[in-house]
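#structure-requests
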Amino acid sequence: MKSILKRRVFLVLFLGLVLSPIAAFGQGEPFPNRPINLYVGYAAGGSGAVTGQVLAEGLKKYLNQPIILNLKPGAAQAVAAEFMKNSKPDGYNLLYLSQAN
């Protein structure tokens, strides 16, 4: 009885290891494949906006996609956060927030 149980457990583990790489073939096109929006909750010219621009340039270099910087100032970054909350959750919208000390 124990040997049958051991064989079944071994078979399940073996099939799990053998079949798990098959899921990689079901993936679609590589990410990212279109421009990415970066929302910043600060006005142009401020330190938060400048930091957002530096971040956008760094992301552009590593992701090989254009990064569109969108400045949404107001209400202590709540306008940008609200805009981000209502945007499509597809991974192409990023929000840059910073904490004031």
